[in-house]
Design brief:
Chain lengths: 345, 676
Amino acid sequence: MSWNFQEIRETVRREAEQISDPKDLEAFRVKYLGRKGLVQDIYASLATLPHEQRPVVGKSVNDLKNDVSGIVEEKIKTIKAGQARDPGEDIDVTVPGVTVPPGHKHILTQTVDDICGMFERLGFVVQEGPEIETEFNNFTALNIPVDHPSRDAFDTFYLELPDPDRPGRYQLLRSHTSPAQIRVMRKYQPPFGVIVPGRVYRPDAVDASHSFMFHQIEGLLVNEDVKFSDLKGLLTVFCRRFFGEKIKMRFRPHFFPFTEPSAEVDISCYICDGKGCSVCRRKGWLEIMGCGMVHPKVFVAAGYPEGKYTGLAFGLGVERIAMLKHGIQDIRLFFENDVRFLEQF
Amino acid sequence: MKISLNWLKDYVTVGVSAEKLAHKLTMAGFEVEKITAVDGDTVFELEITPNRPDCLNMRGMAREVAAILSTRLKPVRTSGLKFPSRPCDIRILDKKGCTRYIGTLIRDVAVADAPDWIKRRLGSTGSRSINNVVDITNFCLMETGQPLHAFDYDKLCGGKIIVRRAREGETIITLDGVERKLDPSILIIADEKRPVAVAGVIGGRDTEVTRETKNILLESACFDPVLIRQAARRLGVSSESSYRFERGVDYDAAGAGADRAVRLVLDCAGGTVAGRSDVRAAGKRPKSAAIILDTNKANGFLGVSLAPSRYKKILRQLGFQAAAGKKDTLRLRPPAFRADLKEEVDVVEEIARVIGYDNLPVSLPSVPAASIAPETRRGLRQAVRELLLAQGVDETVTYAMVSEKSLARAGQGEPGGVKIRNPLASDQGILRPSLLPSLLSVAAFNINRGQKNLKLFETGKIYTASGEREALGVVLAGRHEEDWRENRKGAFDFYDIKGIVEQTLARACGQEIRMAASPCVFLVPGQGVSVAVAGVTAGFLGKVNEEALEAWDIRQKNVFFAQIDLEELRPFFGKERMCRPVPEFPAVVRDVSLAVGIDVSFQQVCATAFRLGRGILHAVKFSGEYRGEKIPAGNRGIVFSLRYRSEERTLREEEVNEVHEKIVHAFVCELGAIQR
């Protein structure tokens, strides 16, 4: 048997031109590539051919098979493309999409999480303490003298809850997160690094930059050989990561009863690059946290052996940081919870 | 505090520019907040920390400048004073309140304008000139830090000075012309008959030195800081004098201050000293204890390598007595005016401060791996927060103080919470017993500003006499977020708050959440349930009643609230979850539509089904509720599906039918349901 491949190819081409719908295409495919199609026929009869013809016919039939397959693939695409659009699929894609929009995490929470997260990555562990505290933890243990003004009712909220340690005195709302340091030290032995976020309270009249409730984050690292240079290094790493690598920093001597030496950390104002603007009150510097080396008396109050440990501590106001970072002008916005404020962050 | 650069130069040589000096002062712990040029002078506004009352004057600052710039202090003239042996009539009745009182009687002074140089000095720091005698007291206060007061001696009844507590009902008209009520908590200076000054705070008008004054009594005293602070606060007066006494005035400085003032009065106003008394209520103050400084240890702590001699030089400039001890130690005695220096670390800080913190090295601490367990309270809070955020609920942060009155108006009986002894305002009188007042206030605030559709939560503390507990509060108001595809844009209802709370709790702690109808304060009867986690009641949720809405000024009806005590969830938080096999065999689902009496709950329907489910009923899925004409009166229609499944095999049709028929039969016979 012999085949005129030239003619077959011609027929294929002609037939292919006539194909316009999937039914024709399927008939075409079966005719050539089906189980009983022409290509199979030729393959089946190869064995009956003389040896010398087999390679020639074999190659021709392979070519034919590839040609037809190619045409079929091609036709599927053109048929699909030529089909009219299903009217049911015809939609206005410019109408808004629909979802349950995720809620907004309060910007104070975000700030706390960011700061704590940075210290956690440096090896610190987050700890918390209660808001209702004793005078001992809030003042005495932190080396704040009995007659210190911050103990007055003008500076601290006292509660109708008798102080178990001091008859005739009352428990209070912590005026800073530092009492949590005392709790951690009374519970755990060094070495450790802890970071303590939390709400604190002071009876300040409310205005654009004061609130009787606000948030602080406190850090404490205690070991046998913590040095002043460690304090500088740690807070430099933090400030660069949090405020950007470009900022300048300075450590300014300050006073806190529970640290010695004590310092305040200033960063160059990133609004004006240190040139002086209204945000930094023309100083070019922004005061962002207090810090120092833990006062030996605090270790004594915590029950640690005298002289065995040194430590560093720092504290910052979350509202202040959030206000600086996000350009929030009034501290009251945090606590009014206008949803149009909340939804910005 | 304001200081004038020209004035400062009277006491110390300043070889650097004003800007450079300001920077050096800032970096030594005296932050210069502002620099202003005033008539050829430069005025610094300094922040002096409360531990440094010794620097609230020009001499003190000059001493610091000398140490910082390594220059010398210039001496001040007080010489040539001779006092007569005649005493003044001074008595101290409150010996704790007043430890020392120096009175100097100067006769025949000529009260007139102060000399220009004094006026100029005082003017540069914003102080108004009155007359030479008063200006001299102010000048000496600024120069030496010792507050002084001058009385018109002839107006002191009986020529007496008595330091005592005020008596109940006594009053005084102070220098500012205000009549002030006094009480026994206030220390006063009195004459024979009446108060003539509020000790350490402000003088009295009646004994004021005026141009007619001939004879003066000059007071230089030491008062108790706490008494002065309390009196100043009670009277609402803060003066240069009280500011310094509150922070502590050096006991020894009273003499020097008095001498300087007497010298200046004699020089500028003439007169002669006619009497002098130095009454000490306490004996001589004991010498401050010696401090041993180990310079090697200090070097290590600061990361520097300074020679002991350098330490000695710096400390001497700050007024220390310093002697070399054994093995690089120094034996130190801090100056009397530095009550803040008690220990070795205090001295180390002085060194660090004078060198400048910025000149000290930087290192990175190794943060040890601590064996401190993470806070489950925080972990749980974060998990709950993320779940609520994912459901579109916004987080709020609210004040812990609430109004007792609103709570009483909305609730029943005792409001609970913890009372604040010194509240800022009457509507912030108690620490909240519940998150409801806080969240309803936020809702009211938003609704009043036109934000009527709210989904809000807070995780915060609630307070009881036995302590504080962490709680979750959720409030829903108004309508769902708009979905333009829905025909019905639904108002929030009970099932919204129920769903949010159920999902959040179940996901956060992996426990069964049960809710049971229960009357709740603040909630509408019939639309309130208690919420139990693993069998323990942890909170409540439902529709807020009208009393509560009124109490917090909400003019909108559809408000729903939930509160969950997160402490009850903590035991379950963070537990490992073990994997169960994924179901291998298909479930068979049968839909059921019933009309049941309105007193029959879906919970009863479920219980009935499971009782007869023979272990192959694994879920009942509620799909709808209908009330209307097609349902007999007193009934409602419910639609749900029963899902059957086995973990071992594919269930056969007959097997499922048998169980299902029995269950449906029970719905009809036991619950009185009608199949629809």
